[in-house]
Amino acid sequence: MLKLLRPAATRVLSPLGRALARRGISPNVITVLGTLGVAAGALGFYPRGQLFLGSVVITFFVLADLLDGVLARMLGTTSTFGAFLDSTLDRVGDAAVFSGLILWFMSTGQGVLAGVALFCLVAGAVVSYAKARAEGLGLTCEVGLAERSERLVVVLVAAGLGGLGVPYILAAGLWLLAAASAFTAGQRILHVYRQTVPT
Question: Which CATH number among 1.20.120.160, 3.40.50.10810, 1.20.120.1760, 3.30.540.10 corresponds to the domain 2-196?
Fold first, then answer.
């Protein structure tokens, strides 16, 4: 769904991409810095209960996930390694976001929500792995209700609003995300099954 917004985001980020391209900055550097920023924001603010500030910082660095692609296209340096690095570090960023929330839930005695956040982390990894494994086998797997972009939007909006004092929004967002992630994993498994098992 959020893929539809990518062209608009690319137009917004293009001036910054051109400025970075003139300075010869590598897209891989942007990828690494973006991941470090996400991890620092999530692990620095979330465990202390600073959910709104943490979400703002994380959102800022998540934009690097779009900026590195814009920069690579401008420099003509799109590469297999760049795509691999980007996808790999996405998992690191996701782990940091949910780990930060889990640490906060545990420190405040919210064990159930810590478990839900852990489920969201694991289910999100399964969703991403299912697609990567399918494509590695030469199959297609472009299906799913909750891809990484959607999952990030849900958790960051829910955490941010929760940090502003909106009641129950974080819990509702995590339960919704857990259900959507499990459903998406099932969608992808079924999609691959239909491609590989004769009917």
Answer: 1.20.120.1760
